[in-house]
Amino acid sequence: MIPEIGHYALVLALAVALVQASLPLIGASRDNAPLMEVARSGALAQFGFVALAFACLTQAYIVGDFSVRNVAENSNSAIPFLYKVSGVWGNHEGSMLLWVLILALFGAAVAAFGRNLPPPLRARVLAVQAMTGVAFLAFIVFTSNPFERLNPAPLDGRDLNPLLQDPGLAFHPPFLYLGYVGLSTTFSFAVAALIEGRVDPAWARWVRPWTLGAWATLTLGIALGSWWAYYELGWGGWWFWDPVENASFMPWLVATALLHSAIVAEKRDALKSWTILLAILAFALSLIGTFLVRSGVLTSVHAFAVDPARGSFILVILVLAIGGSLALYAWRAPSLRPGGIFAPVSREGAMVLNNLLLATAAATVFLGTLYPLFLDAVSGAKVSVGPPFFNATFVPLMVPLVVAMVFGPLLAWKRGNLKAATARLWVALAASVIAIVGVLVVYGVSSVLAAFGMALAVWCAGGSLVELAERIRLFRVPPADSLQRLAGLPRSAWGMTIAHFGLGVFIAGAVASSAWQVEKVQIVQPGDKVELAGYTFLFKGAVEERGPNYIARRGTFEVTKDGKPVATLHPAKRFFPVQRTTTTEAAIHTLWIADLYAVIGDPQESQQVGGPALPTDPNAGWAARLYYNPLIPWIWIGTIIMALGGAVSLTDRRHRVGAPVPAQARAAASPAE
User: pTM of this prediction?
Assistant: First the structure.
């Protein structure tokens, strides 16, 4: 009975979304307050119905109702409770229900917290949000029903995909979807503004907090996915330019550009048309990512391999949403007043450069990701675009971006002084030079590129601190005055400093782990020692271990340095009997400045006996991969700091009130009133 309630709730949500998508638009065009109010009540009701449906599916997973096909195909009575819950979104139907739940959540948030918005704008925003809801609710109801029954019901389920039975994958999709789907709100604001035909500083201020929230959660979602790939897939790396990784990275790049262009639109009433376009493209890339994951056109450990019919449905949604919004943009954008004028060397100019480089980087990733699909569709030729292409094209675009990013906050609005800004950055510049010299002294001339990469990291992190010091006039006024200025800084300024500093930490981790990773792959027998980066790994052997729904072979490495114990690592290979699948469980010991990383493979002279490979000889050697990954923890520390910066900026009170109207605009509006 509960699954039927969930299905009925989805149908009701679809009906409410249809009303919400139509009547408020009529009300806004006629200035009819009751019809506009339908948007608010409809958004709250739609969220309530979708939340009820999600709760019903979650209950079916928790109690193990295997009469529901979705539960029978993606759960099992033996799996831990965490994976019974995460199994709700560990499949196509359930993940689409999570997608719609978050979409409805953001609509309800606009309805609940958008009381300061002009009623016509709020009505249009919620109507556009409902249009997206209609499309995806119809997709679920008609093609991807998560409550479909099985008769007769099996005694037990087929188990969740073993790769998804991991804490990282339990939390990665919700955070990723909060970012992905959160960009729907900025899309709705953009389309609503185009329908209204007005974009002003107040609109830019209203759209910024929604962009910030989506950007911060998307940052965490991508970081969690990278962390999972690092320790679960067992290849020692943190990013492989996988097409589905790229699908989440592209909207992040455009959302980052949108954050900065919205500042210019708010502060200087400029870049309005460009900001609208970025808001459309950010969500468009999220929709493209949804299509790539669910259409079956990609092969990836992240993708849901579903039938092409569902992919065609999403493709229709994608064409209508992107094509319709871009057509509206082409019609309305020329009528938007250009706004403020500024010199190339100014804070606005720095943000324009920021936007151009980020947009070019997103286009580069888009081309590298989709070109093989286009070529295959047109000619049938098979090509592979991998890390060499992205490293050779994407990284060079990021270097000038980071260099310019440090200058931007130190330049004045409208017209800046580049020479004065450079003079104030002498500390960051000196620290960068010291970083280059230090790396070359320690690692030699073979690490020239890495030396400049570390200098870039120091420049980014140091420049953010210099900018903060300039704000509080450190060492130029009495310490008490500096502390008073520090306490009085707006939270958006704190957020910018924290996020830019986090990017510097991330760059340091990415450069060091790529340039100075040490790897050894060899066969080890019990008692063998492996020397790696000054550490000694002593292999003690491997034993069988049984989990709730798997059988494992767990190895043991005792790690010492200069004869002193450092860590004991237990890498494992797990075999899941229900799915007949084997997974790799890396063992990692974090030193904060490096990771010690161990992976165990199959034994020599082994045979498969209904489980993981078993050695026929008790003294058989085992394939092992050992890594020393310098500064790799800084990658995730840096991304967490960046997301924290977005969260701090989000708490700025100015994001909750409209932008002030300039005196000139008030004077011009008075006669009309």
Answer: 0.92
